[in-house]
Specification:
Keywords: Membrane, Transmembrane, Transmembrane helix. Helix 3 (about 45-70) runs antiparallel to helix 4. The termini are far apart. This protein has one domain. It contains 4 helices and no strands. By secondary structure, the chain is an all-alpha fold. It is about 85% helix and about 0% strand.
Amino acid sequence: MLNRVMSVVPLFKFIILTFSGFFDLGLPLGTFGPPDVLRLGFGPKMILTVIGIESIVTIVSRHRASTICDENGARRTVFAGLIAAILAALFLRGMAVGVN
């Protein structure tokens, strides 16, 4: 019985990391109150759809990201991801400029 328990203990690190990752993804959604979400033209169903799509995109793109990392190295892959994230943030900021 003790061996079975001890074999599960290393999994707790991954469970905590996974929980923390999803917690970090959902944390900013709490800053959008219902008036803000409705003013942007989105409802709760749209927020849940975005969260669901994010999970699907993560699963689908994980293989490609690991292939890029294997071919180009981790540092270049992370740098390319940061540039893509910055461009996406600028694009979204540009889309939200006209929203009051």
